[in-house]
Amino acid sequence: MKLFMAGLVTETNSFSPLPTGTLSFEEGGVTRGNATTQPVQYWTAPLHVWKQAGEERGWQVEEGLMAIAQPAGPTVRSTYETFRDEILDGLRAAMPVDIVLLSLHGAMIADGFDDCEGDLIARCREIVGEDVVIGGLLDPHSHLTELMLKTTTLLVPYKEYPHVDVADRARDLFRLAVDAAEGRTRPVMRDHDCRIICAMHTPYEPMRGFVDAMSAREGKDGVLAASLIHGFPWGDHPRAGARSLVICDGDADKAEALAAELAQELLSIRSGLNRPHPDIETALDMALSNPAGPVVLADVADNAGGGAPGDATFLLEAIIRRGIDNAVIGIFWDTGAMRICREAGEGAELDLRLGGKHGPMSGQPLDLKVTVKRLSSDLTQRFGDLPLPLGNVAWLQCGGIDIVVNDLRTQTFHPEAYTGLGIDLASKKLVCVKSSQHFHAGFAPIAAEVIHVATPGSITPDYANIPYRNRAPNYWPRMEDPFA
After folding, report:
1. What pLDDT is attached to residue 385?
2. Which of 94, 172, 175, 465 has the fewest CB atoms lying closer than 10 Å?
3. Euclidean distance between the first and final Cα of the chain, in Å?
4. Do 403 and 329 contact (CB within 8 A), yes or no?
5. pLDDT digits (tens, 9 = 90+) for 350-405
6. 440, 389, 375: which is closest to 414 by C-alpha?
7. Predicted confidence band of residue 73 (pLDDT cuts 50, 70, 90)
8. H, E, C per residue of 123-172
9. C-alpha dihedral (99, 246, 483, 270), degrees to nearest 10
């Protein structure tokens, strides 16, 4: 057996002010056939899994391009086409192959391409022919398109939000691909539109029970895989929204029926899907009234992992205005402020203009008097068990408020982003993170309470009023009964 593997990963926020170009991918990580020779990181973990599994079977494993960019606005056309063609050239050079495995996102949109993953997979299919197994690993916050379903043998999305199961789903995809390539199964995929657009947090009920029951159907009665595409709400795409996805062994009718059943089950629990999102003032009142601590506040609308800049000042401004003096907040993406702090050095006291640099969705810049407590350039933070780099990082102190700033745009995944600098979270009343949900895996265990805050910003959780131009309005919560 011969395996070719590659990856192209970014998530497109149609409403983000930040374009996604070559620099974004270079910053996120671009490797050309050697990702698996480097330490494993979050986005490269699937390739490590596949290479190890293939080589354990004595296969020849060919590795192509792996390119990752932090979510932002639409990808520049030439950037997408260049990376796409590099993957295709690598595949041509590796031919003949038995299996192609691609690590993708599923919500990548470029100038002139509203379905980058479908375009890439279809071109791979043209090269390898109809008999080769093509498998795609997806983020559940993706747009499951007809082209993707038509040209791929197997599509497997992560099941958890936060996405702590990337390596597990990569193993699932490899196992399914091996069975198909060796003739033990004949995978057939079917999906069903759930007509739901919202954030579905899997640690909480009713989503916890839904995912567990869905997963329990796998491996029985010819069901090879059962999954849920959550959809990416801020991708203005005709297929935005939740879709159930079922793979059966040679039985299209069974796959279609189970996909419809799962969609109906999700629709029946829709009233419990949306977590409470109080506004800033209400959230601060709730946090301060809790006698315990720390209380974790999620600045959900300034999540770099959803395409937001990561420099919004709304929550910090309210904390300062209310005189709260036992809080930590981050991670602010502010390359200019970071440069100034590095020039000034640890221990420096200076006047610093922070945040608010990328338009109205970032709020107003704040002029602060800060002390540079600590600088670092080699810290990482974990997402699940997988590390992610933080770039250059600064711990700033403004009165009783600790502020973490960096120059590598990322959301706040793990307490290590703070504790690695020496910040004691146990002593804080408020721990504020720029993240929508991925923070939960790391921060929930240390939190007296977790509050998702409806902050202003690039990805506000007002799902009924997202200003779509390409997505039809027939979805909940915009309509109470989207199938009426």
Report:
1. 85
2. 465
3. 50
4. yes
5. 999 999 999 999 999 999 999 999 999 999 999 988 899 999 999 999 999 999 99
6. 440
7. very high
8. HHHHHHCCCCEEEEEECCCCCCCHHHHHHCCEEEECCCCCCCCHHHHHHH
9. -110
**Closest Cα partner for 235 from 105, 117, 361, 73?**
73
Distances (CA, A) of 106 to 29, 102, 434: 18, 11, 23
Instruction: Compute the distance between CA of residue 75 and CA of residue 350 in angstroms, rounded to an integer.
Output: 37
DSSP alpha helix (H) spans, 182-251: 207-216
Regarding beta strands 366-376 and 393-398, do their DSSP bridges make them parallel or antiparallel, or are they unpaired?
A: antiparallel
pLDDT at 313 over 90: yes
* pLDDT number for residue 386: 87
Q: What is each CA distance from 33 to 43, 116, 378, in whole angstroms?
A: 15, 21, 25
For the stretch 322-360, what's the b/e string if a residue is b when 16 or more beta carbons lie within 10 angstroms of its beta carbon?
A: eebeebbbbbbbbbebbebbbebeeebeeebebbbbbee
- pTM for this predicted structure: 0.95
Tokens describing residue 476:
């909940």
- pLDDT confidence of 185, banded at 50, 70, 90? very high
Q: Which residues have C-beta within 8 Å of that of residue 29, sequence separation ≥ 6?
A: 41, 43, 44, 66, 67, 68
Could you tell me the two tokens for 373?
């407590």
> What is the DSSP annotation of 315-378?
HHHHHHHTT--SEEEEEEE-HHHHHHHHHH-TT-EEEEEES--SSGGG---EEEEEEEEEEESS
CB 109 within 8 A of CB 75: yes
Residue-wise pLDDT tens digits, 284-303: 999 999 999 999 999 999 99
Tokens at 281, concatenated: 């003032």
- Write the CB contacts of 463 (distance below 8 Å, at least 6 apart in sequence): 197, 198, 199, 233, 274, 477, 478
**Predicted confidence (pLDDT) at residue 184 exceeds the cutoff of 90:** yes
Strands 386-389 and 380-383: antiparallel
Please give the full DSSP string across 34-66, using - where no structure is assigned.
-GGGS---TTTHHHHHHHHHHHHTT-EEEEEEE
Residue 473 CB contacts under 8 Å (≥ 6 apart), including other chains: 479
pLDDT the model gives residue 384: 85
